Write the structure tokens for this entry.
Amino acid sequence: MSDTARPGPEAAPRERLRLDRKIVSWSLWDAGSAAVNAVMTTFVFTVYLTSSLFGDKDANTSALSTGMTITGVIIALVAPVLGLRSDRGGRRKFWLAVYTGIIVVSCGLCFFVQPSHSFLWLGIILLCMATLGGELASVNYYAMLPQISSPATMGRVSGFGWSFGYFGGILALSLVLFLFVQPAFDWPGGSDENGLNLRLVAVFCAVWTLAFSLPVFFAVPEVDSVPGPKRSVLGSYKELGLVIAKFWREDRPTLYFLGAQAVYRDGLAAVFTFGGVIAGTVFGMGQADVIIFAIAGNVVAALGALAGGWLEDRVGPRAVISFCLGGLVLTGFGIFFSPGPSGFWVFGLVMCALVGPAQSSSRSFLARRATPHTAGELFGLYTTTGRAVSFLAPALFTLGAVIAKAAGVTGEGNATRYGVLGIVVVLALGLFLFWLGRERRRA
């Protein structure tokens, strides 16, 4: 079956992109959620939770990993059905608002997570709730892409939205750095007594997400409901099984893609998830330096997403994804062999530039194969498959470090360096499966 089996070819005829109110408002939601992704779950609040302020660092990290694993399982089980039900009921925007509200409330309540071991699990639960809300919201958010773009502009719109997310992360991280972590001026919120500054960071993220998320609810119309009887939750799972069976019979390339992206997206997520750990543990960078690198990384990732979207509308998402994954494998080896922070900066920024286009093109690749009334169920499957192997990169990262330590690798951070090879393996496997699916389609 060819790549054009479903609506929307990979490389459609040129069409001028007009950044109207719908596209800009839709993209602002990405900028709002970026504060949670960049600040709360990657570079600041997770570092706070796993620090010695809450007890043993290794035990804290293990607890956080356990919480996130459970959250991933929940998302994998419910995301596709919730996406399908929002499609059928014509309530895509309503559920986007509900899940965004979960993000905002969970982040705001993190203010009460004081630096004590007794507050550790409160912080983990709230962070997991914010993650759950973000992942479920993204099902409905991604499904809006066919509503606001055409097959000829989908790559650029997706890249534009993704770049907005990165620019939102840049601005949010900059404000966090100069207002809370290293205050540029004296003010009560900059005090680190009882973790006040980092607890206020959580409130800042809640307000940020709410402010940037509001426009999409006024600019993008609700999707029409699909005629037919209402289904129970159990009936929705049965319908989901029928949907998967239908794709197996009629559009196996989409299922092949979902399997491949599940692997390589886990590697892409690990690039950012473990970026701060690698910077601090392996290369000895401090908290402020990690945030500065994160800001620079988001800048090049945003530019990469814009460039990738422009390129995608010319050569198709498959070529962009393949190029980026191949480049990520090479730069991963570059980081592994880097002797110091300068090498990490160079290869790390190249990695960030490649992650953006890979993520954006993966989203538009699937959106090109969807119709407005199947987008929710497809992106529900996209979220589910993306979470189905979410343990893979963290497990191989840990395995690499454990094997290195058992083999006698000594010195602070040297064993952790070998975890980078685990991420490289996941990215390489994802690239292989991506191309394997292509060969199957030709057959």
About this structure: The chain has 18 helices and no strands. Confidence is low (pLDDT under 50) at residues 1-13, 439-443.
